[in-house]
Predict the structure.
Amino acid sequence: MNNFESFLNSKTPLKYILLFAIIYAIYTNGKEYYHFNLYTVYGIAECTEIEIQNTNTYAAYKFYVDGKRINGSIQLGSIVYPGWVGKHFKVQYSSKDPEINEILLDKPVYDTVRIKKAGFVIKVQEKKEKRNQFRD
């Protein structure tokens, strides 16, 4: 037990934790870089919500791959536009692992045929009859 206590009291555990954190960060960033460079596919995603958590703002979105719904989110910078919710944008994802994805908020999609083909239902707003004040 004396060796274990001396191990914990030394700076060695901190070095191992720091080394593990660096390796994990390199692995996750490398995995995303690898998938986006070799297996990139583009689709259409719908922004579902803008969420503010403390000082960070996130955009949540969904898209479909082979009929399966994939959810994603991205941290936004200082530019946040609430009008993004319900709109459709281009999404980049890996064909090998669609969970590796990123919405491209600077590339909106307006083509309703492509949006329907991507698996979304387009909501048509009903026109309300305007009230005629002279008819009443």
About this structure: The radius of gyration is 23 Å.
